[in-house]
Amino acid sequence: MTVPTADSDIKASPMHAHCQTCRLNSLCLPLALRLDDLEDFDAIIRRRAPLKRGETLLDPRTPFHHVFAVRCGSLKQQVVHAEGEERVTHFYLPGELVGLEGVAGDGHPGTITALETTALCEIPFDRLDVLSAQLPALRRELYRCMSRDIRDDRYLHCRLAGHTAEARLAGFMLDLGYRFQRCGLSATRFRLPMSRIDIGSHLGLAVETISRLISRFQQAELLHVARREVTLLAPERLAGIARGAPIGERADA
Amino acid sequence: MTVPTADSDIKASPMHAHCQTCRLNSLCLPLALRLDDLEDFDAIIRRRAPLKRGETLLDPRTPFHHVFAVRCGSLKQQVVHAEGEERVTHFYLPGELVGLEGVAGDGHPGTITALETTALCEIPFDRLDVLSAQLPALRRELYRCMSRDIRDDRYLHCRLAGHTAEARLAGFMLDLGYRFQRCGLSATRFRLPMSRIDIGSHLGLAVETISRLISRFQQAELLHVARREVTLLAPERLAGIARGAPIGERADA
DNA sequence: CGAACCCTTGAGCATGATCAAAGTCCGTGG
DNA sequence: CCACGGACTTTGATCATGCTCAAGGGTTCG
């Protein structure tokens, strides 16, 4: 089944992912597995056909059977709040697990949609559960993943409840950078996968406010944004703003 | 201490809790365990001396070894956001698990403090982990607990990012009632364990705003509050407000 | 080439923060 | 038992942040 190095076997069993060769295997679930355990894990997961932009992975009516690992691309989760009104509650980046909220039963709390072309590994939760009984490292890693999600939500709570719009957006940008760094990309130069509308919905701010803030941040030389390409020019100052400091004026040329 | 009828060994080991006789055993971790499995679980947990109001259970420097189940009383979690400024990120009520954010390592994200006299069961996570390998029902219940926390945080996100202060407070009150109901109390009549200051910090609103809103809700006959005793008079209308509806005027006598 | 959709910028307005000052409840100790 | 101190709560007045409405420009995709 599993194979040493090359892509040769990928063609042979195109529906199976292979964790051994996955660029993200140091972030994803099998993190702590020994090589032979990895094969057991590898055997239960399935590579799905990539989702295209705007396609939905699951919604509240989807019965819960799988969790997913993002291999590349990104997704958003939206929860219907009032009629017609949706909030973006979460963004998923490469190496992150999707669908853990569904384990509790009673369906998924929201709709999860691809923001761009997105490849996922599909992991049947029943088999993951059984395997986790046999592999302590896997089990603990799964506990850790869920725990980290809870912890991250606590920090997010701080950012949302923290007053100013400036602080929220600054914190959001830094968090994105941090998460891109986790999957091997730059923490200071990246491409926003989501629209300003999504950012606004996520942070509880109007689109116009997001737009104005980005302009103001650029004037203050905190970051540079062209279309959706972002460069964080002064992460420390952004961190200060996220904690409530005022926007310092730009050095002025 | 509490036990009338059954096992004689209970007096022998007063520091051990006994899940079989716990009023909350239908909510807490052993939910799905058979009686003999329950004894295994029972053997690893320890009843702690109750915390008094204001005493802290753990803080970011506490090494992670245990999770806790609230037997009675309540706690709050605070995370330092900016210097000197703290946000209340979570309240813990009876039957809920405390400390799951710590599993991921790198310490707990905040300080957890008792809001009133609070009794807890202390569960060593290492032993829980090992036991969960042997008891599928326990393992799945643990997954479920963590999953539910994540899901609840998504809903909380909606409430926080949803605009008006009215909607936030209405949603908060309903959520509290729902959680009290889960542990066998009334969903519409309960005692607030936390101060208005804590509520404000949790919802990202000024204390004054909380106070004014409570007054306004009372005028509209949505609820009745005396000191910290709350009666929800019109839960459906509150639910409407939480979704963004305006406050209807009171029927007027 | 047109049509969505997304993004930006402007002007006026309302919600909730801030500052200020009573009033209330509680535990503590006289 | 009552008086005191401290923390919590309520209410009022003013002000600023960020929302709403409105319109113009850009990009992408069929």
TrEMBL record, chains A, B:
Keyword vocabulary terms for this entry: DNA-binding, Transcription, Transcription regulation
SUPFAM superfamilies cross-referenced by the UniProt entry: cAMP-binding domain-like, Winged helix' DNA-binding domain
GO MF, any single term: DNA-binding transcription factor activity
Domain HTH crp-type span(s) in chain numbering: 163-236
Entry GO CC: cytosol
Cited InterPro entries: cNMP-bd_dom, cNMP-bd_dom_sf, Env_Response_Regulators, HTH_CRP, RmlC-like_jellyroll, WH-like_DNA-bd_sf, WH_DNA-bd_sf
Cited Gene3D superfamilies: Jelly Rolls, Winged helix-like DNA-binding domain superfamily/Winged helix DNA-binding domain
Keyword Mitochondrion: no
Pfam families with a match to the protein in the record: cNMP_binding, HTH_Crp_2
Record-given protein name: Transcriptional regulator, Crp/Fnr family
Protein's organism: Chromohalobacter israelensis (strain ATCC BAA-138 / DSM 3043 / CIP 106854 / NCIMB 13768 / 1H11)
